[in-house]
Amino acid sequence: MKVLAIDTSTFVMGIAVVDGQIVKGEIITNLKKNHSIRVMPAIEALLQQCDMSPKDLERIVVAKGPGSYTGVRIGVTIAKTLAWTLDIPLVGVSSLEVMAASAKYFQGLVVPLMDARRGQIYTGLYKVEGDHVQSIVADQVILATEWANELKAYNEPILLVGNDSSLHEATFVETLDRVQLAPATLHNPRPSELAWLGINREPEDIHTFVPNYIRLAEAEANWLARQQERTEC
Amino acid sequence: MSEKDIFVLGIETSCDETAAAIVKNGREIVANVVASQMESHQRFGGVVPEIASRHHVEQITLVLEETMKQANMNVSEIDAIAVTEGPGLVGALLIGVNAAKALAFAHRIPLVGVHHIAGHIYANQLVQDMKFPLLALVVSGGHTELIYMKEHGVFEVIGETRDDAAGEAYDKVARALQLPYPGGPHIDRLAKQGKPTIDLPRAWLEEGSYDFSFSGLKSAVINTLHNAKQRGETIQPEDMAASFQASVVEVLVGKTIQAAAHYDVKQILLAGGVAANEGLRTQLQKQVEQLPEVELVIPPLSLCTDNAAMIAAAGTVLFQQGKRATMALNANPSLLL
Ligand SMILES: [Zn+2]
Questions:
Q1: Which residues lie below 8 Å from residue B243, measured CB to CB, with a gap of 6+?
Q2: What is the C-alpha to C-alpha distance for residues B79 and B66, in angstroms, rounded to an integer?
Q3: Distance, CA B150 to ligand 1 centroid (Å)?
Q4: Which CATH class, in words, describes the domain spanning B7-122+304-320?
């Protein structure tokens, strides 16, 4: 099966083409550049290099968030539109799971993280099992300090993965005994891992598929809070 | 026309409507689908950009599918894809732009970026052939512009707002009168029941300028309401609506007629959501009679508000002129015409 994987949920742009058991090609950049300008040219270039045309694709796998709202939407919009118009299955995979998958040979627990501003992080807890990672605690947005405290309950070595993990390293090191930062070469989520994760999963309904933002839009959260106040009065 | 028919798929997501349409030869609507998010934004009293972007992702493939179904066509039968690249809300524009690029890539179809206002102007081409030179008055929630065109695809902005767009002023005045969002239709309705008895300013600006300014008028309305309240007097909202509308319409129509005479145009086009305003339509119709050589074209309301048929119509002209966008096409929230 020929799979195109797309991940634009952080500054890392990842595009991969996987054909059956073979990773044909990957483009990964970690740059503060605009995904909207670069993603489609990258997909075009990679398919061309792989001597493939869009009509050869049999499945699209996309990182569905959490992450940058705008970034995730660019990847998801392209993935939905391609899957719809090529009439092929679409699979969405957690952007944090993709990050954790890079650490699948670590002996212990994997904590992928992305900075979510004001001391908060998008994170989850994944356990290495054989050649894959299993979600133990669902993806969430949480204060880094609070998350470090919660992780005390697990008596296993912990690996922090993701380009933002160095920003929060101190918080975890202060609180936890057996915690370490992944090496620099593991921080960029690998689009080929994304393709692998999605290759056998149940496809989404293309039309109703949306990113997993984790958070409500700010205006919506405020509005709901006001409604709540009103009912309490 | 002896040549082959040209079918253009238009995509528009610049604000709070997810829209797609197919237009034949730049003139004939084959399919036209608009999914409005208005209801979702009403509770916030205006369009919330992040929420608009989220809705566009939810709607985009549904709207595309409905469009193809209405047209009974496959995407591969389309000759070109035209998409609004700006101006508008950047997060919202990005959905249309990236969907359009994905479609163009999947089927190797030429892609054309369209300016939203060019789209509004070309909505007229779906009603009647454009005759040059012409003058377009574009009035919407985000725009108040007078555009002179001496030929297809060439736009000269001869007047624009220096502060609020007319539609924005309507929304703000509506809020001051405690009317629901969007305020335009409510003010238009109230104005019909009232009399323009309240003295409000007309912003003609300096001699010969075709620019607009509505923030002074908006402030005058708010101050008048405030002062009346302080004195314990009541102002009939109907009269305030009528007075406000009279000021807006007088300046919009006055400047349009002046510019039409000065540029000696053959046609005046009214475009944008505020073209739905009855007060504006009526006055413009009446005043254009002063210029017997000039034809006035006002598209039906469904083509005045944001839609993708207008983007496809404008895109057809640009496509025929050889304009092409690459896979690097980006959303440009402050794109110039
Ligand atoms: Zn518009």
A1: B194, B196, B197, B198, B199, B200
A2: 19
A3: 22
A4: alpha beta
What fold, for A103-186?
Nucleotidyltransferase; domain 5 (3.30.420)
B157 annotated as ligand-binding: no
B131-298 has CATH 3.30.420.40 classification: yes
Tell me, yes or no, if A211 comes closer than 8 A to chain B by beta carbon.
yes
In the CATH scheme, what is the code of domain A2-94+190-223? 3.30.420.40
**Per-residue pLDDT band at B49 (split at 50, 70, 90):** very high
Measured CA to CA in angstroms, residue A176 lies from A60, A164, A172, B230 at distances of 39, 18, 6, 63
What pLDDT, in 10s, does the model give residues A109-156? Answer: 999 999 999 999 999 999 988 888 999 999 999 999 999 999 999 999
A87 touches chain B (CB under 8 A): no
Residue B94 contacts residue B123 (beta carbons within 8 Å): no
Judged by CB atoms closer than 8 Å, whether chains meet at B75 and A85 is answered as yes
Query: Under an 8 A CB cutoff, do B48 and A80 touch?
Result: no
* Interface test with chain B among A4, A44, A81, A216, by most B beta carbons within 10 Å: A81
Q: Where in chain B is the domain with CATH 3.30.420.40?
A: 7-122+304-320, 131-298
User: Could you tell me how far CA A3 lies from the centroid of its own chain?
Assistant: 17
Residue-wise pLDDT tens digits, B60-111: 999 999 999 999 999 999 999 999 999 999 999 999 999 999 999 999 999 9
Least CA distance to A219: which residue of chain B?
Answer: B48
